[in-house]
Amino acid sequence: MQEKLIDGKAIARKIKTELKEEIEELKAQGITPGLTAVLVGDDPASHIYVNNKAKACKKTGINGEVIKLPKETKAEELAKIIAELNARDDVHGILIQSPLPKHIDELGMILNVDPLKDVDGFHPMNIGYMLLGSPIFLACTPFGVIRILDDIGVDPKGKKVVILGRGNIVGKPLAAMMMQKWEGCNATVTVCHTGTSNIIDETKQADIIVAAMGMPKFVTGDMIKEGAVVIDVGVNRVDDPSKKKGYYLCGDVDFDSCLEKVSKITPVPGGVGPITIAMLLYNTVRAAKLKLVNQQ
Ligand code: GUN
Which of 95, 137, 172, 282 to mutate to test the pocket of ligand 1 (most atoms within 8 A of CB)? Predict the structure, then answer.
């Protein structure tokens, strides 16, 4: 069992150790990478995510800042705060935690972020560069999936990758990355979604399955082929009165029924999550370096 388990925390630690060295070098040149996360509203999961990001910054030597705003914040107020962050020399990365309250148009708001500080890789300009094969920043979760595959020695080149879910944060950008002629990508990609008529026909052929559709334990053992690599991006809260918190966390994969068949699998929690944060720190360091290069 242990040899099948992908230890996301260990991979994240490795990435952060590499980053610490780069951060020290930047500090020696008078630059401390800075990341500001903006959180609007009181979504409890978002608060946990943002606090985890800030903690990870601190541990690696990045200046992490969190701006928490009430859910009634107007779009114009948020746009003004983003403009101020764009102008600040000590802020290299800006992250607007998703989801925003319903009265704020998320895509419209991301347009306000300086693309060279868009460490989430969500700005349409960054999506465009990525799609064209010349990325500035890669979105953190799909980037993390690529990094995991590299770390466990699985090269997607020529393999069939099936992505479940076509969301803007994971499914769509991951599909666009996986089909690129890049090292660690170059796969044959299929994206399944609510319009797919028979998902199991696709998943059964997959060498690599990435589940990112937000449905608890959707992928079961009978849906996958022997030896498949399964990456579970889902984080679902399932109500359970027997638990202290009243819920438990699970992924989009039914871990227990898949375990026997897979060659490798990520757990939830402790799989993709910690690596996503590590890639955010990576992008922040990259943003700081970009600024340094642009100043020279
Ligand atoms: N909400 C869920 N995932 C993410 C992410 O990667 N970035 C941001 N900004 N919000 C999110």
Answer: 95
